[in-house]
């Protein structure tokens, strides 16, 4: 690894008189994970124990380090035995398992989410939807799940209060979904204060946007370096080093564009789910190879790291 990571295309472009602008030290994120690392990895859309097994096998074959595996269909789509199998398989490799609370807008009777405006988005509509998310959270944590995905500000705050009062374990981490990810520094800071331990941001944010966020918050950021089509389909592999430089601490999410939708998962989607899980790991290997070629592969958190460090919170009123 070189002392100063090189940009893609250098030094060839320099020889042609086409060097990029100098990097500004002021753009560098001042934050890191509590272990000192600047980036971790996540494989998303791993929809059950069989898919977890495929991911772990492929990660071993391709030597892809994984800090977190996340699921998107929802806790309610899994039986207790399936959750326990996923917990045990990931625990053996010291990988954080993150499951999605529900219901949310896409699994609801409300029609507004299907209108052109999107209505209230993917949030939890009404008391019953919040109650379902809390039910999921309590059930999953009792089965050993340590990370919960949320897509609603009220659910986030409720679960943060629940862990503050010991209703769910105090070391449970809460992750804000890409479905409602904040897009400016003010909203990012609010989510942190509501209890978020890591926050998905849309994959179309510019490096300058990440710098703006890092001026107000050190909460870990999750970002698809390849986004699913329903989240834009953006592929930002060549920007990873710069995204880490500006956005640390950052989870690199290995999504997959040009792939069929698999939520909510069922046996009818088994083959495509396993195939896409396997390919997400391969995409991760491609991203890590690129970082290594550019001398930018330093700064990875130790495997097994999962906690976010000290963050700013609103007073829970206890």
Helices and strands in order, then pairings?
Blueprint (H helix, E strand, L loop, with lengths): L11 H4 L23 E5 L5 H14 L5 E3 L9 H13 L3 E5 L25 H17 L4 E4 L2 H12 L8 E4 L8 H10 L3 E3 L6 H8 L6 E6 L13 H8 L2 E5 L15 H24 L25
Question: What does this protein look like?
Answer:
This protein is of the alpha/beta class and 318 residues long. Helix content is 35%, strand content 11%. The protein contains nine helices and eight strands. The protein has helices at residues 12-15, 49-62, 80-92, 126-142, 153-164, 185-194, 207-214, 240-247, 270-293; strands at residues 39-43, 68-70, 96-100, 147-150, 173-176, 198-200, 221-226, 250-254. It has an eight-stranded parallel barrel, surrounded by six helices. The longest helix has 24 residues, at 270-293. The chain is globular, with a radius of gyration of 19 Å.
Main β-sheet description: 8 strands, parallel, barrel
- Helices and strands, in order, run as HEHEHEHEHEHEHEHEH
Helix content: 25-40%
Radius of gyration: 19 Å
Number of helices: 9
Structural class estimated from helices and strands = alpha/beta
Unreliable parts: none
The total of beta strands comes to 8
Q: Could you give the order of strands across the largest sheet? A: 1-2-3-4-5-6-7-8
> Mean of the pLDDT scores?
92
What is the rounded distance between the termini?
A: 49 Å
């Amino acid at each position: 690894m070189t002392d100063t990571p090189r940009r893609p295309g250098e030094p060839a472009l320099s020889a042609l008189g086409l060097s990029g602008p100098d990097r500004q030290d002021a753009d560098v994120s001042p934050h890191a994970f509590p272990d000192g690392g600047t980036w971790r990895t996540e494989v998303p859309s791993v929809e059950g124990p069989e898919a977890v097994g495929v991911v772990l096998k492929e990660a071993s074959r391709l030597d892809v380090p994984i800090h977190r595996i996340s699921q998107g269909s929802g806790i309610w789509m899994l039986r207790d035995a399936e959750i326990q199998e996923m917990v045990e398989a990931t625990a053996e490799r010291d990988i954080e398992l993150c499951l999605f609370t529900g219901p949310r807008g896409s699994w609801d009777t409300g029609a507004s989410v299907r209108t052109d405006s999107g209505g209230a988005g993917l949030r939890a509509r009404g008391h019953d939807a919040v109650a379902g998310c809390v039910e999921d959270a309590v059930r999953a944590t009792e089965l050993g799940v340590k990370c919960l995905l949320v897509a609603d500000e009220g659910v986030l705050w409720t679960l943060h209060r629940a862990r503050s009062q010991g209703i769910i374990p105090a070391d449970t981490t809460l992750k804000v979904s890409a479905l409602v990810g904040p897009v400016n520094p003010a909203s990012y800071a609010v989510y942190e204060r509501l209890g978020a331990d890591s926050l998905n941001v849309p994959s179309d944010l510019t490096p300058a946007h990440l710098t703006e966020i890092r001026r107000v918050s050190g909460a870990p950021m999750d970002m698809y370096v390849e986004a699913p089509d329903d989240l834009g389909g953006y592929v930002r592999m060549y920007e990873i080093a710069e995204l880490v430089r500006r956005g640390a601490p950052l989870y690199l999410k290995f999504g997959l564009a040009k792939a069929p939708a698999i939520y909510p998962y069922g046996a009818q989607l088994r083959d495509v789910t396993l195939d896409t899980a396997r390919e997400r790991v391969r995409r991760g290997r491609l991203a890590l190879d690129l970082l290594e070629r550019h001398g930018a592969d330093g700064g990875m958190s130790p495997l097994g790291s999962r906690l976010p460090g000290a963050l700013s919170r609103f007073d829970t009123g206890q």
